[in-house]
Amino acid sequence: MAILGSIIKGVIHAKDVFSGEPNHVEEQKNVLKNLLESAKNTQFGKHYNFKAILDHEKQEKKFADSIPYFDYNQIHETWWHKLHDGETDVTWPDKPSYFALSSGTTGKSSKRIPVTDEMIEAIRQAGIKQVFALSNFNLPTDFFEKEIMMLGSSTELKEKNDHLEGEISGISASNIPFWFKGYYKPGEEIAKIDDWDTRVQTIAERAKDWDIGALSGIPSWIELMLEKVIDYHHLNHIHEIWPNLQVFTSGGVAFGPYEKSFNALMGQPVTIIDTYLASEGFIACQMRPETTSMQLITDGGIYFEFVPFKPEYINEDGSLLQEAPALTLAEVSLNQDYILVISTVSGAWRYLIGDTIEFTDIERAEIKITGRTKFFLNTVGSQLSVNKMDDAVKHLEDTFSTKIPEYTICAKRCEDGEFYHCWYLGSDIKQPDTTEMAASLDSFLKEANKNYKVARSKALKGVRVTVVGPETFYDWNANNKKKGGQVKMERVMNEDTFAEWEAFTGN
Question: Which residue intervals define the domain GH3 C-terminal in the entry (predicted)?
Fold first, then answer.
């Protein structure tokens, strides 16, 4: 009998029974108040008079009226650059212990996002909250004795001046609680290997020594790791070496496009649990099996605001117009995409994280990610969000009986002077009929999106499809950024980047 597993599961269940349902709106009010109190004497807090906001009877409205929206470039150029010049108390008391490096999906150069000790603790608490939520998923007792493979960036952080730098997954993994280290794989030594290929090769060589019950990471890189393990040990599927694998905690991107290719590597079904950990903080995680939506972490170090995702509020570069209205959690509605705006214990204020979300259950504060503000394809009025593109790709997978884990798209003016949606699909399909695939994409999107249908009758001439191997996308990332970790493929490219992409693919 799994005695330790029984104890852990019992503790988790007891915590769940006695904790009760949270009031997310009240938690958010308290978070905002605590953020303002903590930062009122910083340079930022004095500049925007946080004390006056704290004294106001409607703190949320006064806060929104007093402080502009910031994207990374704006807050870095105005405020965060001072941290690299040795200044303290800039947007948060003292100075950050870490900087999270993130090129995200839209640039080659790394952003440097402050990560304070308070944020490390907030991420740790959010992780614990997710562990406690496992009691809702009806997992067997012995699952709680198995090891967890967390595949992120290297935990070998680089020391620079008076702080450490690395990607957020590496920073988080380097700060795991002592009691968790016995469960954590690939372990500290392997996790410090900076070169992705070497790290994955080492994991493959050691795989038979571990009893993995759960995986955690970005789907595309988890798949590559699993393929390496399967190939190295000449397996049919991953459950031949890790028979107790039962959970995959997916994060960073929507899991939907990877579902078919991921399941092809499994020997039996696994439970998929979505998480939303960004370089700026732990945003949300899935708390119950009845839904694939994630619950916002409303009692941690992040205050959320929501701007309706409408073309009239968005500049061409994906930034927000300052007059765009921001709603609180108490004011949102269903069936509306929102641009996510956050303020955090790392000194990000009214910060555009770049994602769009939709509420699926307001009372539970449950959301799903619907896309990226910069991946909103509206060059010729088509108004396509990433979730609509994901749905279209899933339609292609079903129609043509193939797997398409990666894709990218550009609204490109072609040789006849007309605009086309040019899709590159990552698939191993043999002798693809790209004309038929383009027609199927076009037909699906006309049915799914009225704005797209209108655009197709006017400025958007048609759809073109090119099929390349999925490895092309991984090689592109390796060439432009790096392999593994938090690296994600850009779903929408501008014409300049797309020209580089086509040159890279030889098309």
Answer: 390-495
